[in-house]
Design brief:
alpha/beta; Glutaredoxin
């Protein structure tokens, strides 16, 4: 089991038995759990902001690109087919090794019944290989769709991919996280986690793109946005 900041969020967050923490509260806890990792990540995020990573991603009112990606069973899914029954929430994630992603998808698991009730669907996009993509779907729970963005094709197209840098790649490896093995390449890329709400006409209703991957869109807020579309 990886150490320090890489333990699953649910195993580290102590909470009152009668209280379910919001995603923001979970992420705040993780940010404060390891000062050493916070310092490393602060430096990384500063670099990403300086490079304006994510600035080219689709924004509100843009047409979301027609993506074609395999799901975890190898069946190709298109944006058009996923929008057939209602609006789509598209969540780009680093992977099941990332405690911030795990926390986000645990929160989505609780929010999915509400999303289905208002006519929406969740698609999770990851570049992880070897069946690991299914792990993300398992965390989010039944009703979500996991799409495999092999070699970061779609992520690069949307301007969400960035080079981690050799130093952080080596540090990750020390903690048992081999990005080359996880993603099947030596490019050293990771995605900026992002959340989009796409209307049935293919236009973006909501876009959360934040170079600081320790910040995520709150699922309950996203569900309310989907509900407003369907009124």
């Amino acid at each position: 089991m990886p150490r320090d900041g890489f333990r699953p969020a649910q195993s580290r967050l102590k909470m009152d038995a009668m209280t379910t923490p919001s995603l923001t509260e979970r992420l705040d806890y993780l940010r404060g759990a390891s000062p050493k990792w916070r310092e490393r990540y602060d430096e990384l995020v500063a670099r990403l902001r300086a490079l304006e990573v994510g600035a080219r991603a689709p924004s509100v009112g843009d047409r979301f690109p027609e993506i074609v990606l395999p799901d975890h069973r190898g069946r190709y899914r298109t944006l058009t087919s996923l929008l057939a029954d209602g609006p789509l929430v598209v969540s780009f994630n680093r992977g099941s090794w990332c405690p911030y992603c795990v926390s986000e998808l645990e929160s989505w698991r609780a929010a999915l019944p509400g999303l289905r009730q208002v006519g929406g669907k969740l698609a999770i996009v990851t570049a992880e290989l070897g069946g690991r993509s299914q792990a993300l779907g398992d965390i989010a729970g039944p009703g979500s769709v996991t799409l495999c963005d092999v070699d970061y094709g779609v992520t690069l197209e949307l301007g969400l991919a960035f080079h981690v840098g050799s130093t952080l790649v080596a540090v990750y490896r020390e903690f048992g996280i081999d990005l080359n093995e996880l993603y099947g390449g030596t490019a050293g890329l990771l995605p900026v986690p992002a959340t989009f709400v796409v209307r049935t006409d293919g236009l973006v209703e909501y876009a959360f793109v934040e170079p600081d991957f320790r910040l995520r869109a709150e699922p309950e807020d996203v569900v309310r946005i989907v509900a407003s579309i369907m009124r």
